[in-house]
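Cross-posting from the modeling subforum.

Setting up a comparison between two proteins and wanted a second pair of eyes on the formatting. Protein 1 (sequence, then C-alpha cells):
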Amino acid sequence: MKTFFNFSKGEQRGIILLLVVIVVILGLNFWISQPDTSATSTNNIVAWEQEVQDFENQKKIMSALNDSIRNAQKAERELRFHNYSTYLFPDEKKPQKQPEYFFFDPNTVTISELVELGFSQKQAEVIDRYRSRGAIFKAKSDFAKVFVVSEEMFSILEPWIIIDSTKRSALPTTTQSTASTPIFIILEINSCDTAQLKKLKGIGNVLSQKIVDYRQKLGGFYSVEQLKDIIGITPELFTEISPHLTVDATTIKKIDLNNSTFKQLLQHPYFEYHIVKNIFTYKDKNGTFQTIEQLKEMPLMYEDLYNKLVPYLTIR
C-alpha cells in the first residue's frame, strides 16, 4: 500500500493542481447551469402585461359586439312595432299629401284624382262603390250626401265641382280668381310656372316640370300644339287642357343663324345634326345667310322641319 500511495513532491503538486482544476470545472458547470432569475422575472412581467393588454382589448371588442347586437335588436323591435302599427292604423301612419284642387265631375272622377283632391284611399273607394251601385250626382249637393264627404271637405270642393263638363266654356275666361270661387283658368304657357300649370286637371308635378324644361330648351312656345311633343301629354289630355292655354310668341328667344356656334344650334331640340352640319358647310362656301328662306336650299331640309325652325331664327 505504501508503495502505491507514496508520491514524490512533483506528483503531489500535480495531484493538487488536478484537484483544483476539477473543483473549478465543477463550480463553473454549477454556476452556468443556474437559471437567470432576473431575466426570467423580467420576461414574466412583460408576458403578464401583454396578457392583461390582450384581455382588455378582448373586453373592448366584446363590449362593442354586444352594443351592436343590442342596437340591432332594438332596431328590429322598432321595425316590428312600426309595421304592426301601420297594419292596425294605416291612415294614421301615412304622411298627409297636400291636396291639389281642379275642376272635376263627381260622376266620372277617378279614385286617384279623388286622392289628389284630399280624400284618403279608402274614402275614394267608398265614393267609387257608391257610384257603382247606380248613384248619379245630378247636383253639387248630391255629392255631400256621401257619408265620407264631410261638411268641411264639401265646402272646399263645392266651387270645383262641375256636373256637366260641357258647361266649362260658359265660365268666365279670365286669369284672375278669388280664394273662395275658382274660375275657368287661362294660362299663357311662355310665362306660367309649375305651380300654375298644376292647377290644370291632369297636370301634376312631373308634367308641369316637363313643360317648363321643354319651354326652356326651345326658347319658348309659338303654338299650344307643341305640347304634343312632350312625353306624357296624351291626345286626350291635350284635348282637356288646350282650351285653358294661350301663347305669346313675341317672347320667344331667337337664334342668330349667322353668329351662333355649331354647339348652340345643336342644343335646340328641332335642329338635327346633319342639318346643322349642312348649314356650316353652306356658310363656308357661300358666306353668311341673307334670308332665312335660304335654309330651304339645304340638303335634307324638309318643309315640316323648316316651318318648325322659322319662328326661332333671325339674321343679324
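Protein 2 (same layout):
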Amino acid sequence: MTNGRLTDRVALITGSDSGIGQATAIEFAREGADVVVHYLHDADGAERTRAGVEAAGRRALVTQADVRDENEVGRMFDAALAEFGTLDILMNNAGVDASGTPVAELATEVWDRAIRTNVYGYFFCCRRFVQERLAAGGGGKIVNVSSVHADNPNAGGSDYDCSKGAIRMLTRTLALELAPHRINVNSLAPGMVLTPFNQPAIDDPAVLEEQVQSIPWKRAAQPEEIARLAVFLASADADYVTGASYVMDGGLMINLGQGA
C-alpha cells in the first residue's frame, strides 16, 4: 500500500539500473514521483526500471552518464530539467565496491576509481542539485547512499571504506549549509543487501548462509526495504530530519563487539 507521499515530485536517482537504485525508483513512482533513471553501462537494466516506473503510472526519463565526469553530470541534469522542468529529490546511489586489495598493494588507478565514483560523483550531483534548488527558492531532499562501512572498516576495503566515510561527512556538512534553505540532506547506511554487489550470495545459498551469521536478524536486506526508508527521507514526513545517517543492517553494527 502506498500513500502518495511523493505526489508530483521529480526525483533523480543515480545507479537506478539495478539493486537499491532500481527498487527506489519504482517505490518513488508508486508514491507518486516521476523519476530520472540513470545508468552507466546497463541500458537493459535501466529500461527495466523505466518499465517499473511507468507500470506505477508515472513518467521516467532514462539517462546515461559517468558520474566521475562533471560535464557528463551536467548533461544529465540538463536533460532532466528539459524533460521535467524541475528536480525535487536527488538520491545519490551509483557506486563501486571495495577492491579487496591491501593498501600496500593498492594501485592508484583503483583508488581513484572508487574515490571519483563514490565521492566526486556524489559531490558533482549534490552541487548541481543544490544550485537548481537555490535558484528555485529552496526546498528539496537529498538522500545519499552510504554504508555501514562508513564506520566499520574491512581489511582490503580502504578505497570503499574511505569513500563511504567521506559521504557521511559531505552529508552532514551539506545539512548545515542548506538548513536555512529548507533542503534536507540525509544518508542511508545499509548493511548487507541482496544486490549485484553481493551476487555470490544471491547465486549460492551456502555463501549467503555463511555471510549472514554475523547479522543478528540472520538474513540480508532486500533492496525494497532500503527503498521504503528512502521514501520516508524523500517525503514531507522527514521535513525535520537532516544531517542524519540511518543504519539499516539487521543489527550487524551493534553485534560486532560480541565475544571480544
